[in-house]
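ingest -> validate -> predict -> emit
validate: passed (alphabet ok, no gaps, 253 aa)
predict: started
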Amino acid sequence: MLAIEWLNNARKVMSSIEESQLENIKKAATIMADSIEAGRWVHTFGCGHATIPVEEMYPRIGGFVGFHPICELPLTFFTRITGEMGIHQFLFLERAEGYGDAIMKSYNFDKRDTMWIFSHTGINNVNIDIAIKAKEAGMKLIVFGSAAETAGKKSRHSCGKTLFELADVVVDSCAPLTDASVPLKNHFDKVGPVSTVAFITLVWMTVTTVAEILADRGVKLYIHPSHNVPGDTTAHERLDSCIAAYKERVAGI
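emit:
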């Protein structure tokens, strides 16, 4: 049954992450915790389906203030598929060198910030633009993606480097290069990608580690509560506190 084959593939990826990436997750989380403790940001960015981990972590129940999602709509919006903001335009834009520079001009950054980029292959220009500008601003650069599987792939950027080569810390998603993982009878292409489940796994392993580090340091976290639990009469107050903390922090960017 192909459903079970995909499930086993997803479990294998998660097991590989546990076996090989805990040290790098801790390194990345420590850098992020330093930024948040300093009252600054962990900026998060991705293109295409690599925006899903960005959208998953914040704002979200169980997430907390300190992560700033940078979601560029033409690089994230797939509802229409064809026509306006279609797949063809997206593929062009993510490879358009200089587009990331324009995105970065819209924000104010600080050397105490961290830039966290998600990219399966690490070779496309927008992500690399963002990475280069982040490094120029003095930020630490954290990159999550299929680093081992894509080793040797040539960067599309004129700098000649991939995201993984630019990063201060790399966490490998352990997803296969093809992403899709299940062979299908009478077809060349596989079905059942696993990169998204890998990224979401890594998001919560990392964010919970950041939370643990900050809690151990005595830093107060503004955690988004569930507002659907019967009898929890202060949930909306706690949510309002989170939004107020976010508004205060985001005012500088």
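The chain has a mean pLDDT of 95.
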